[in-house]
Amino acid sequence: MTDHDLKQALHLAASTSRHAPDPADDLARARAAGQARSRRRVRAGLSGIAAVAVLGIGTTAVLTGQDSSGTPSAGSSSTPQPSTKAPDGIQLVAETLDASPYTFDLTPQGWAVQGEHPWTVTIAPTDGSVSDHPDDFEGKLVIMFEPRPPGGREVDVDGRRFWITGDSGYTTISTWTLPGEPEGAVRLQYPNDTGWDEDTMLAFTASVHVGDGAEFGGGSTEPDGMQPLDQVGAQRPSERPTLEP
Amino acid sequence: MRDEERSTEFVEFTRTHRRDLMRTAGLLCAGDEAHAEDLVQTTLTKLYLSWARVRRADSPLAYARTSLTHLFIDETKRAHRRRETTSADPTLALAREPVRAGTDLELREAVLAALQSLGPRQRAVVVLRHWLDLDVAETAHVLGCSTGTVKSQNARALAHLRTVLETADHHLILEESP
Predict the structure, then answer these.
(1) Residue B67 Cα distances to A162, B63, B88, angstroms
(2) pLDDT tens track for A169-195
(3) Residue B65 contacts by C-beta under 8 Å, 6 or more apart in sequence?
(4) Domain of B106, in residue numbers
(5) How does strand A170-176 pair with strand A102-104?
(6) What SS3 class is residue A116?
(7) β-strands A185-191, A170-176 pairing
(8) What is the per-residue pLDDT for B81?
(9) Average pLDDT for residues B94-108, to the nearest whole number?
(10) Is residue A87 part of a domain?
(11) ∠ at Cα A194 (B21, A140), nearest 5°?
(12) Potential cystine with A30: which of A49, A203, B45, B90 (Cβ 3.0-4.6 Å)?
């Protein structure tokens, strides 16, 4: 039997007796999803405005000398405090997310692995708001493996250091790999305005494990939506930290 | 683009191509028609929400098939994916009953069972390469992997199908395409 015969067998297997439903049902379903997405975006926008307003009030309080005890500063090496998540914020669940050669101890609900390469993995929202093309990074979470963290604002969480930068609609968090993993830095690029707050981004980044198959990426050309390395920052850590026991 | 215009185009596209998408989804899901229907519904919704991209595509149907395959692969990777497996439709249950040897229906059941015994990615490779006639490079592009991975997955999948179908007394000779 030739490949033509295989196609005939598949043709037979693909036959279905189901009647195609009225396209109006698909249209109604799609319109409802579109309206729900619009409502989510409006709410996310309002949450962002509210967050800016709160930050503005906080800044005013500091500038006018009012008591701000107990409020962490936004300076370097700060330890993030638990925050109240917006209703539409990303929810992380304690389930393993496999994105070979990377695995995560946490899984963001409503997001799924889209593209897998040894040098990069793409995780995208499943609401249809972004391209299906795995190499189009617009609006998606991108995981990369690099020789060193690119620098940025330093944040320590549970004895592990992270570097945070933000530009061009994305927030990037980098950290050294853990002992026992391939030596290098894992870098996660999060799209802004998609429900990820800093604590959630840090928690998800901290849950990553880099497998042996990971390869360094970071070519000279950046695909759509990718923040070029030379825009991220040039500050380099002097040595590779280790986790506290 | 006006919403009315988008809706009109979407309805026409759905009327023309939904059955094709259902057949592809049926193969990806190895005959699980409820799962296939879910995939198609979600795919059509995603297409509607990004209809401008569908319009720009050289082949909207090819774009839709790619979206469908991506969704299928994404679902298989989602750790917390939950699916109900009950079948309330008695006609679907009847289709699973044993059938006479030598009929097309028996061969269909055997092929679906063989597909079901493949891993999702290998099944996707078989569907893309041998049902949708994509070449190795196109298949690798859709699945986001290397051409070498496609070749090796395809070879393993065909060898597995050959073994399973021969065990079911269907002596199909499945040759790997170049």
Answers:
(1) 35, 6, 28
(2) 789 999 999 988 999 999 999 988 888
(3) B20, B21, B24, B132
(4) 3-176
(5) unpaired
(6) strand
(7) antiparallel
(8) 41
(9) 57
(10) no
(11) 55
(12) B45
8 Å CB contact of B23 and A132: no
Instruction: Answer yes or no: is pLDDT of A88 > 90.
Output: no
Q: What domain range includes position A42?
A: 24-69
Distance CA A20, CA A23 (A): 8
Do A119 and A223 fall into the same domain? yes
Note the ipTM here: 0.78
Based on the domain organization, do A174 and A104 belong to the same domain?
A: yes
Residue A157's pLDDT band (cuts 50, 70, 90): confident
> What are the chain A neighbours of B31 within 8 Å (beta carbons)?
13
Dihedral Cα B123, B128, B129, B134, nearest 10 deg:
-170
Contact with chain B for residue A114, Cβ under 8 A: yes
Quote the pLDDT of residue A22: 86
pTM here is 0.51
CATH number of the domain enclosing B55: 1.20.140.160
Cis, bond preceding A101 (omega within 30 deg of 0):
yes
* A122: pLDDT strictly greater than 60: yes
User: d(Cα A16, Cα A20) in Å, to the nearest integer?
Assistant: 10
Cβ within 8 Å, pair B7-A27: yes
Whether A103 and A211 share a structural domain: yes
Tokens 């695995």 correspond to A103
